[in-house]
Amino acid sequence: MKRTILLLTIICLLNPLTSSAYWPVTTEDNLEIAATPDLHDRNPRAIPFTNGSILVAYGLEGSGFMYQIVDFFGDLTYEEPQPVFPGIVNTSAAGGQLIIDGEGGAYLMKHYADGIHAQCIDSTGTRLWGETGVLIYPEYESSYELCMNDEGGFFIAFAKDEEADWDDVQMQKVNADGSLPWGEWGLPISDSSYVTERSPKIASDDRGGLFVIWQDGSTPSIDPDLMGQRFDGNGQPLWDENLFVALEPYIHPIIKDGQGGIIVKSNDDGSTVDKHRRIDADGNILWVRDYLTRYGDYADGFLMGEPGFYYCGFNYNWQYWGQRVDIQGNNYWPTYPEQTGAPFTDYIQPDYFTTKKAFTFNYPYFFGFFILDFAYLNHQVTVNYLSMVGERMLGNDGIYLMDSLRYEPEMSQAIPLPDESVAFVCMHGSSSTAGVPYDVLGKRVNLDGSLGGPLHLLVDLEPESSSIQIPPTGGNFSYNVAIEDTYVVYSDFDAWVEVTMPDGDTREITLREGIHIDSNSVIERFDLVQN
Fold first, then answer.
1. 54-60 and 64-70 strand pairing
2. Following DSSP, what letter does each residue of 294-352 receive, concatenated?
3. DSSP codes, 367-398
4. I need a surface site. Which of 56, 130, 365, 463 has the fewest CB within 10 A?
5. What number of CA atoms fall less than 13 Å from residue 302's CA on the CB side?
6. 267: number of CA atoms within 13 Å, CB side?
7. pLDDT at residue number 366
């Protein structure tokens, strides 16, 4: 019996160029994620979101804490930014914090006069906890740390200001529904009287609890030493005593080791050389390593990579460096005395060098973004990335990502995207120069060093010919596609042919080709054959 296949529709997808926004392809042009005329858009925080998008939260002068979603193609989801807490009247441009929720959405937090409020949004960006969110702590605290818990909620920790002249460290648990199992005040991490405890850093223990590392003034040292403890999901300590970790450090970021423990980086006693320590679930320090990294600041990179490895990014002696370490403490890129690390750049003239930087890992590469200060009206952002053997993949000094900026970008963040590209988000402007308010800007870089993202153009084409009949022995057909566009980017060309089978079922035949579109050109694809 002869089978008849009806060619219904050819759909050509060339991913997004819309009239509103797209990922720019020149160093001078930037994606304006938030650029409210004559008002400051400040203090952005950005995280990877659903389907390759980016969630950006920031403070808008006169309106308060806002959020926007930048989709995979560089389109802004909302024509106007969305208020995180529309029921709270606040005109400050101060920002807040955010963290993914493990279910495709995110939690967003902001401190107000009555305390810390939290909001949950789902994967579509819809607010789930009402117009004022949930009050997760009933006092004003402006600095806090977040981490996910294993039940879909999150933990938060902060140093609590006491009426007397000292601070205590406090923690709170928030369930996925916004409930507070530890009560409205949470639980103390450490609350020794007459002793300052500060700067808690937290990480999930992957068993419903969390690790906490904080600076503690209860020791005889002049400055607070570093102490640690692990708590279960009920907030109860799991180690008999608080663990002494390090002597008088300035900074102490922590990351999970992927094996139920944590890794702590600290510059003990204010040293310019960091120590790295791995601590297991029972509170044992498994190893200590020197000279893996040099002390810089909180913008240094310290993040997990592929399973069993972590990556560090830092600056030293007018260069930017990277280091790759396994969880046994073995380094894979050079270290002292051979070399400081794997270089992202060559030596940079001190007049041009800044310590402003951002790092991210997007398997299998470690990316670094760096701010260079050439002159007034000529600030630049460069990017380079390192392979697993420490090879610079975009040349000795990387490539320019942003050029001819009037001021140094601030609060830089790097966000990995699903196609191995990376997005860069920053704040740019001035609080003291009239007519130059802060904006939130973005850029996207691909592995080959090109800028921009995939096109977003969806076109439905009706076939010009009548239905095509293919005999049981097989055959082929051809069709023509012509699409016009004016944008420069590498993209994938997808074509779907939808067919109707004799029994009424529909099928799709898919074709993909890589194409490059030159500026102001016309794309023409003729006589594509599908067997």
1. antiparallel
2. E---TTSEEEE-STTEEEEEEEETTEEEEEEEETTS-BSS--TTT-SSEESS----TTT
3. EEEEEEEEETTEEEEEEEEE-TT--BBTBSS-
4. 130
5. 25
6. 14
7. 98
pTM over 0.85, yes/no: no
Domain ranges, residue 497: 6-13+456-530
pLDDT at 8: 31
Please give the biggest Cα pair distance in the chain: 92
User: What is the reported pLDDT for 419?
Assistant: 86
| Cα(368)–Cα(355) distance, integer angstroms | 12
> Within 13 Å and on the Cβ side, how many CA atoms surround 410?
14
State whether the Cα torsion 301-304-305-308 is positive or negative.
positive
If you write DSSP's letter for every residue of 466-520 in order, what string do you get?
A: ------TT---EEEEEEEE----EEEEEEEEEEEE-TTS-EEEEEEEEEEEE-TT
Task: Work out how many domains the chain is built from and give that number.
Answer: 1
pLDDT of residue 455: 67
Please tell me whether the peptide bond between 237 and the residue prior to it is cis, using omega within 30 degrees of 0: no
Q: Is residue 171 part of a domain?
A: no
**Tokens, residue 272:** 């310019």
Paired with 186 in beta bridges are none
Residue 327, number of CB atoms within 10 A of its CB: 19
Q: Is 477 domain-assigned?
A: yes
Would the CA dihedral through 228, 232, 234, 237 be positive or negative?
A: negative
The pLDDT, as a whole number, for residue 432 is: 76
Q: Helix (H, G, I), strand (E, B), or coil: what is residue 238?
A: coil
Residue 269 lies in a domain: no
Is the separation of the CB atoms in 421 and 401 below 8 Å?
A: no
d(CA 197, CA 225): 9
Give me the pLDDT at residue 197, please. Answer: 80
Q: What are phi and psi of 129, to 5 degrees?
A: -110, 30
pLDDT value for 374: 84
In sequence order, what are the residues at sequence separation of 6 or more whose Cβ sits closer than 8 angstroms to the Cβ of residue 388? 324, 332, 364, 365
Contact 273, 294 (CB under 8 A): yes
Question: Residue 386 and residue 464: Cα distance in Å, rounded?
Answer: 50
Q: Please provide the distance, in angstroms rounded to a whole number, between the alpha carbons at the two ends of the chain.
A: 20
Query: How is residue 54 written in tokens?
Result: 């980016």
Give me 120's structure tokens: 């949950």
Token duo for residue 170: 């406090």
Token pair belonging to 416: 């990995």
- Report, as ranges of residue numbers, the positions in the chain whose pLDDT lies below 70: 1-21, 161-166, 192-195, 219-222, 455-498, 500, 508-531
Contact 278, 336 (CB under 8 A): no
Using CA atoms, how far residue 448 sits from 213, 343, 411, 468, 490, in Å, is 40, 19, 26, 41, 10
pLDDT of 512:
52
Q: Is residue 474 situated within a structural domain?
A: yes
337: preceding bond cis by omega (within 30 degrees): yes
Q: What pLDDT score was predicted for residue 32? A: 96
